[in-house]
Design a protein that fits this description.
This protein is an alpha/beta fold and 229 residues long. α6 links the parallel β5 and β6.
């Protein structure tokens, strides 16, 4: 009960955060959110590229990338409000005005972003949905890919980091099946590939989420890929 009370407290606190929106389901189900197509104009007040972190959890990538790239806009998306609270509060405390969060289901993502409004997508340690019966819920399944196609600009890039080899191989198969362009991939990012990348890319990929730190501590290999349509 104590934990549940803390969650509710954080949800309520976020209602007053200027860098978070928490629309109700019926406000965005098959209905456009007022920010759709207007993020640069109404929210960020600039024309900089928009980068999404889907299933952002505590927002480590949104906040981390916001520090690295002040000339880009970052939006973390997750349904878990208590997790988002941490990233949103960090962004406020650090005065990262280019970092924003949406508490919603990723299924509804097209209600928030117009065609070609997004430049890049990060998918960081999502639920791998290992059961075959739940494959359609994986964030690189066809249903979600079709949504990303609507949002991304031509040549927009999708990044994936995961410790789950089955989910990683599934994504590679989807990329090959659809003839998408696989730009880069590795099954063991930190031991095999990171040192071969340029310094800036190394810094970006070294941003670690809460779950990544847990998995790495247990000896899990971290898989990474990026692709485009």
């Amino acid at each position: 009960m104590k934990g549940e009370g803390k969650k509710i407290e954080r949800w309520n606190e976020m209602e007053n955060f200027p860098n978070v929106i928490q629309p109700k389901f019926n406000e965005v189900f098959e209905t456009d959110h007022p920010y759709r197509g207007k993020w640069q104009q109404d929210v960020f007040k600039n024309n900089n590229p928009i980068v999404l972190e889907l299933g952002c959890g505590r927002g480590e990538y949104s906040v981390g990338l916001g520090k690295h790239f002040p000339n880009k806009n970052f939006i973390g998306v997750d349904i878990k409000g208590a997790r988002i609270w941490k990233g949103a509060k960090q962004a406020l405390d650090q005065k990262l005005n280019t970092v924003f969060f949406i508490r919603t289901h990723i299924d509804l993502i097209t209600s928030f972003f117009a065609k070609n409004e997004v430049d890049e997508i990060w998918i960081t340690f999502p639920d791998p949905q290992p059961q075959k019966s739940r494959a359609r819920k994986r964030l690189t399944a066809p249903m979600f890919i079709e949504r990303y196609k609507q949002l991304l600009k031509p040549n927009g890039i999708i990044h994936l980091k995961t410790d789950n080899e089955g989910f990683f191989r599934y994504t590679l198969e989807e990329i090959e099946r659809n003839n998408f362009e696989l730009i880069e991939h590795t099954f063991n990012l930190y031991d095999e590939n990171l040192e071969n990348l340029d310094t800036k890319t190394q810094e970006i990929l070294s941003i670690k989420t809460y779950y990544e730190n847990l998995f790495s501590a247990k000896g899990h290999k971290i898989h990474y890929l990026r692709f485009r349509f």
